[in-house]
Design brief:
Shape: globular
Number of strands: 10
Largest sheet: 6 strands, mixed
Number of helices: 0
Strand content: over 45%
Radius of gyration: 13 Å
Helix content: under 10%
């Protein structure tokens, strides 16, 4: 059974940083590209960042380029999202996803507020 468990969210002031983690199980983690998505209240879920199965290629939505970094540690079955220079508009529930597989975790709440 494929499972994804996100963690690391919280309340942070504007300009602060957080690192999200997503632990995968029930599949061969290193064989799959992964993505981070987010969904803000009243808005559609959007893809924020993606990483290839090898980790050699990453993509980002324009609004987070230069601030967020996606990475993976296949030995730990974990994908990370380092978020720096956080803004109030980054407030959302963040989810990780296996690209091409319709499975979602429970998400982790990120709130950026002073």
């Amino acid at each position: 059974q494929v499972q994804l468990v996100e963690s690391g969210g919280g309340l942070v002031q504007p300009g602060g940083s957080l690192r999200l983690s997503c632990l995968g199980s029930g599949f061969v983690f290193r064989g799959y590209p992964m993505s981070w998505y987010r969904q803000a209240p009243g808005k559609e879920r959007e893809s924020v960042a993606s990483i290839s199965s090898t980790g050699g290629s990453t993509t980002y939505v324009d609004s987070v380029k230069g601030r967020f970094t996606i990475s993976r540690d296949d030995a730990k079955n974990t994908v990370y999202l380092q978020m720096n220079s956080l803004k109030p508009e980054d407030t959302a529930v963040y989810y990780c996803k296996i690209i091409g597989v319709a499975t979602w975790g429970q998400g982790t709440q990120v709130t950026v507020s002073s």
